[in-house]
Amino acid sequence: MQKKNSNNFVILSVIAMFYGVLHYLGITCPIRFVTGISCPGCGMTRAWLSLLRGDYQQAFDFHPLFIIPLFFVIFYLFRNHLSVKVKKVLLYGGIALFLLVYFIRMFDPKDQIVVFQPENGILIKTVLHLFQ
């Protein structure tokens, strides 16, 4: 059991470092960088960085569900103590909540975090460059 918890910590640390490096390079969202279309988690890293600086309002502005991944990590660590029904409710409920917030933000013209701009993605830029 100790080795399994150690593996979980390593995996979570690698993910956090990966997103930290991307943020440092100016790539706030790898999906948005490639496609030009924001993902449901867009703004999450910036929200956590704002939280660490003590700017709660900015954290919420970057992503209103920024605290949810912390709960998912806790539930993941204690998943063996949860019933299958509770796991399904948490998983599907979390997905539904993220999608709801994503679509609300996608159609909010004032939201500058979640955008639909495929022309700004590196994929479209590369394809257009190849055919010039």
Keywords:
132 residues; mainly alpha; 0% strand
Characterise this structure.
This protein has 132 residues and is mostly helical. It has one domain. The chain contains seven helices and no strands. Helix 3 runs antiparallel to helix 4.
What's this model, at a glance?
66% of the residues lie in helices and 0% in strands. It has seven helices and no strands.
Over all CA atoms, what is the radius of gyration? Answer: 17 Å
Tally of structural domains: 1
N→C terminal distance: 57 Å
Total number of helices? 7
Strand content: under 5%
Quick one: overall form? globular
Structural class: mainly alpha
Stretches where pLDDT is under 50 for at least 5 consecutive residues are none
* Count of β-strands: 0
Average pLDDT, to the nearest integer?
Answer: 88
What's the helix-strand series?
HHHHHHH
Major sheet size, sense and barrel closure: none
Helix content: 55-70%
Write the layout of secondary structure elements.
Blueprint: H1 2-24, H2 30-35, H3 44-52, H4 56-62, H5 68-77, H6 84-106, H7 122-130
